[in-house]
Amino acid sequence: MTGLIIKAIGGLYTVEASDGIYECKARGIFRKMHISPMCGDNIEFSEEKDGSCVINKICERRNQLIRPPLANLDMLLFVSSVAEPSPNLLLIDKFIAICEYKKITPAVVITKTDKGSSEELYEIYNNAGIDVFTADNTTGEGSDLIRDHISGKLCAFTGNTGVGKSSLLNNMFPDLGLSTSEISKKLGRGKHTTRHVELFKMPSGGYIADTPGFSTFETNKYDIIFKDALAGCFREFDNYVSDCRFPDCSHTCEKDCAVIEAVNKGLISASRHENYKAMYEEAKQLKEWEYK
Predict the structure, then answer these.
(1) 284: which residues sit within 8 A by CB, 6+ positions away?
(2) In CATH, what number does 224-291 get?
(3) In this structure, are strands 2-9 and 197-201 parallel, antiparallel, or unpaired?
(4) Which pTM was predicted?
(5) How buried is residue 79: exposed, middle or buried, by Cβ count under 10 Å (0-12/13-18/19+)?
(6) Residues 142, 196 contacting (CB under 8 angstroms)
(7) Where in the chain is the domain with CATH 3.40.50.300?
(8) Which of 7, 75, 237, 280 measures 20 to 30 Å from 172, CA to CA?
(9) pLDDT attached to residue 194
């Protein structure tokens, strides 16, 4: 039988198959191969004579995150408010870079538009080719577009505390009849955050990853991006990197760097480039041999 792992805790895996929900354990061979099943994995499993179920095969993953352990993510949406708290552009750019590196579609959701203008934030990411949505959580305006955009996908929401993730989800799925606090608890945002990963099935189709890891912002635990790969995680650089004078240009300070020239001309956001340089300095401190 085939199915999707929707919950993983304590070596027990909840699998959604076409004919129902199964509780499975993984065969010992995976441990010998240093492979652990993850939420989001498409798997093949079988039922033993004693009625228990075991995972026999993990299908090839399109992507995976180190922490939280999650596979085959279609989209990661970074929620940022225009105020209370103010947007943290460096964090947004770090998460977008991780998405690009892992072939996960990034998106930015701007909330609390009733408290200030979203124009500047919208322009930065829209001009970079990133999908951007605005949402007024007091009226629910904008939530329908986001819900339609993630329908049928396996996605996760992240963002700083207080940006309105739970209110957004409440507006997106009012048919669930859940209060904000209940959604917060369901999606691992509550006071007593769960330590395991789970997929929450959306009424419109698809899944939201319920994972406490997306609240921490310890981006090095999501994945490691070394300095030579970082420029490739900024999609707006693509049209310029081949025109740099030096083939090994870091796009931080070199003479005749086409990326820097594009920044100076306003073709690339100055804030995105500044954050790229900050991330590049961090990446220079990484020793690749330590992560092999």
Answers:
(1) 227
(2) 1.10.40.50
(3) antiparallel
(4) 0.84
(5) buried
(6) no
(7) 70-219
(8) 7
(9) 44
Pairing of strands 20-26, 207-210: unpaired
Which residue type does 99 have?
C
The 3 state secondary structure assigned to 123-168 is HHHHHCCCEEEECECCCCECHHHHHHHHCCCEEEEECCCCCCHHHH
Question: Is residue 135 within 8 Å of 141, Cβ to Cβ?
Answer: yes
Element (H, E) at 30: helix 28-32
CA distances for 53 relative to 27, 46, 57, 59, 180, angstroms: 10, 6, 12, 17, 36
CA 249/CA 15 separation, integer angstroms: 47
Q: Which residue spans of the chain are classified as CATH 1.10.40.50?
A: 224-291
d(CA 258, CA 250): 11
> What is the β-pairing status of strands 70-71 and 64-65?
antiparallel
Q: Write down the CATH number for the domain with range 2-60.
A: 2.40.50.140
Q: What is the pLDDT of residue 220?
A: 57
Which whole-number Å values give the CA distances from 61 to 49, 64, 70, 107, in the listed order? 30, 7, 10, 21
| Per-residue pLDDT at 193 exceeds 50 | no
pLDDT value of position 69: 85
d(CA 231, CA 251): 8
Neighbours of 139 (CB within 10 A): 11
Place of tokens 């006071």: 191
pLDDT at 163 exceeding the cut of 90: no
The residues of the chain that CATH labels 2.40.50.140 are 2-60
CA–CA dist 59, 25 (Å, integer): 16
Q: Are 5 and 69 in contact (CB under 8 A)?
A: no
